[in-house]
Specification:
Blueprint lengths: L2 H9 L3 E4 L2 E4 L11 H13 L6 E9 L9 E10 L4 E9 L2 E11 L23 H6 L7 H8 L4 E5 L14 E8 L7 H11 L21 E12 L9 E11 L2 E10 L4 E13 L3
Antiparallel strand pairs: 1-2, 2-4, 3-6, 3-9, 4-5, 5-6, 7-8, 8-10, 9-12, 10-11, 11-12
Helix pairs in contact: 2-5
Amino acid sequence: MTEALAQVIELLRLERIDDNLFRGDSHDIGAPQVFGGQILGQALVAAEHTVDDRRPHSLHAYFLRPGDFNHPVVYQVERARDGGSYSNRRVVAIQHGRPILNLTASFHNGDPGFDHQAEMPAVPGPEGLASTSDLHKGIAERVPAKLKRLLEHQPPFEFRPVETPKFIDPSARPPRKHIWMRAWAELPQDERLHRHLLAYVSDYELLGTATLPHELDFSKQPVQMASLDHALWFHRPLRVDDWLLYACDSPNNAQGRGFSRGQFFSRDGRLLASVAQEGVIRPIAK
């Protein structure tokens, strides 16, 4: 197991302070603030610790303030409802005495019913595709220091983009991209861990899809990008240590906000989860 993957798994092991109160550490991925996927994953962990015998099927979160990776985050859970079929939890992530994220998660064990799904996009498989880690090595010395720190960060997942990434080809193109991803090592048979890691990784790559239709060279034009909200729906059981296809598109970018959607497919074509996110995307004056 790589150090990066082991570190994220450790971050997802929260300390229980009280029945509904948890604390988690943070880490630096080279960005100015805590990675949003970390706060999202930890908030889901906190919510799940208060629910018995039900799995999350959806979560909706708002990022309120940037997180400080030099300090831990406290998660306060409200047991909003435990009904006959569904449970609902509200979670507030708190740092320096102020909320940095609000999350609502709904839990259910699934009922028999109809079954259909979107088709998996017809794209090349991961074999033979270059990883983003290898692609970053070719340009890290040619970008500003802040961007270099982010590019040199070793993520807990291996990413293999189907299309040429924006930081290599800044030209305008349709707002769609496809990325194969998997955890760097085989993981235990723990469905909670796989869900938590999917929540963590779902914040990678998504918002940047909204920049694709615009000619944009990140090495020359600084851009502020920050998640405002994030929604995630779990459709089927999943594993993150086998190849997943993350198919993303962006229907809209306007008024300084970009909107992106994503779908996670298993290697054999099952739709496992869906994601939607809006975030701030605006050029920074030099």
